[in-house]
Design brief:
With 152 residues, the protein is α+β, with helices and mostly antiparallel strands. It is 47% helix and 23% strand. It has a four-stranded antiparallel sheet.
Length: 152
């Protein structure tokens, strides 16, 4: 003898089970897309942070930077400002002018003036004026970053 009473309840539960599987599947797919999705664009923030670090370094060492030569600064900027040379030279642009004379240049600073192309670096420019021996020394600092971050 077969007891067919209440079998419809077991068959109705299959829809709830399939709905639960769909919800879990969509959650897993959404999580993977969020974690491994598009890259992060930190270029502007990195350029501004680098600009701030160099500006701070120049203002803390005013006497040193007011009389330094190009060749000396080329060798000592990273150590004096506590910058990691390998990281900075990998994806960044640095240009330091003292009274409209290029004191330090790394990278292609022309790319900072081009707007509209998302592949060019994002740049930050700032000016620092130091009063030294009855004359003002103006430092123009241009930094740029082309580094993008994302998970592969």
């Amino acid at each position: 003898m077969l007891n067919k009473k209440a079998d419809a309840g077991d068959f109705a539960m299959i829809f709830s089970f399939i709905f639960l599987l769909l919800i879990v599947g969509v959650g897993i797919v959404a999580g993977v897309i969020i974690v491994f999705g598009s890259e992060y664009d930190f270029r502007q923030a990195e350029a501004e942070t680098l600009n701030y670090a160099i500006k701070n370094c120049i203002s803390e060492n005013q006497d040193y930077f007011s009389s330094i030569t190009k060749d000396t600064l080329k060798n000592e900027l990273y150590g004096k400002c506590r910058l990691n040379k390998d990281v900075v030279e990998k994806n960044n642009i640095i240009k330091i002018d003292r009274n409209d004379e290029i004191l330090f240049l790394f990278g292609d600073s022309v790319k900072c003036g081009i707007k509209g192309n998302e592949n060019y670096p994002k740049c930050s420019q700032d000016t620092l004026i130091i009063k030294s021996n009855n004359n003002d020394i103006s430092f123009s600092i241009l930094t740029g970053s082309s580094q993008r971050a994302g998970r592969i």
